[in-house]
Amino acid sequence: MNIENCTAIITGGASGLGEATARLFHQLGARVAIFDRDRQRGEAIVAELGTNVRYQEVDVTDHAAVQAGVDEVLAAWSHIHICCNYAGIAPAVKTIGREGPGDAALFAKVININLIGTFNVSSIVAYAMSRNEPLDEDGSRGVIIQTASVAAYEGQIGQAAYSASKGGVVSMTLTMARDLARNGIRVNAIAPGLIHTPMFDAFPQEVYDSLSKQPLFPVRLGRAEEVAGLARHLVENNYINGAVLRMDAGIRMQPR
Ligand SMILES: NC(=O)c1ccc[n+]([C@@H]2O[C@H](COP(=O)([O-])OP(=O)(O)OC[C@H]3O[C@@H](n4cnc5c(N)ncnc54)[C@H](O)[C@@H]3O)[C@@H](O)[C@H]2O)c1
Question: Does the keyword Cytoplasm apply (predicted)?
């Protein structure tokens, strides 16, 4: 599918991987709607990029807010062709703590944002996409991209909630691709390794240096633009469907 003149919703588009994807798709001629909770960053990006980009304060866990956000995009731009789900959080939740069992409320919060939030957005947007006219000779009506993580396969100590949420995203990808095949909608997921986003700037230098040395080759953190480039390919290559692609320079995460 060609990105130019398409409309894309990008959750988590106010920071990191989502921001890089929003910038790339905008540069390629798409209309971009950023759904994020961070109004300040979202509005700053809109002010910088100018036309064909909008920010909407949407919490992906709030089904009614997602529906309202999608309706607003449809009112402004009539159609939605691309949906990228980047909104996510990664707090540590150990199975047991010093004083007792792990934090069940925090576990539920991570699942709610990373997994249920992804379903909320994908299902609401997919319904809108299903009403599009076919866009190309294959009959494409839309493309959905989810964000998993290598933690879906190799969760580190303290990542019980995060790895469970991303494992859910991995498992849901082929199933959704099957559900939506008859509608001409493809669904894929990116499973990034260690990608340099604002999250990493908060780490102490020794942690940053140690993480930077872990990838197999090239031995460095990934760049948000490299993830955006893969998202672009997943939109443009109609023959990738139901896939989860690791983008991690061959890393296999160790327990800590
Ligand atoms: N950076 C990495 O190394 C890495 C690796 C693997 C997976 N990921 C995944 O990629 C995605 C993006 O990560 P990032 O590094 O760009 O993080 P980030 O913190 O820079 O960006 C995440 C964005 O999501 C938004 N967000 C959080 N909760 C939200 C909610 N409930 N509703 C709407 N927006 C919400 C935040 O405001 C933020 O703008 C996440 O799902 C993360 O788990 C990142």
Answer: no
